[in-house]
Amino acid sequence: MLLIVGGMEQGQREYLAQLGYLPDQIARGGDCPLDEIPSQPVLDKLHLVIRRLMEVDRDPVVWVHSYCQAHPHWVITCDEVGAGIVPLDPFEREWREQCGRICCTLASSAQKVVRVCAGIPMVIKGE
Question: pTM of whole model > 0.85?
């Protein structure tokens, strides 16, 4: 299990390509189906899935848990969305909170966690 985090457009997708993942193996968080678990073993942009689920009043924790059960050797990328100015909008604050909490849970069970910054992958858990 591999969790890849980093800021927006810091090279997470390029790192996936370096690992040998092909585009058809990657579910895109911005448009993957929410009513079924994607068949791809890689989920790119978890933060967008969380947002989309929250917008339709669905619990993202349940969806992520189902995804991880369907793909025991999962690879997930997620942008770090919690830094910066705290938004005034309550939804935006809750979305960032959910992303952070879900990533903490995923990181605790992941064998490896990598943070990508400026295109450089840094292992922060595992080998």
Answer: yes
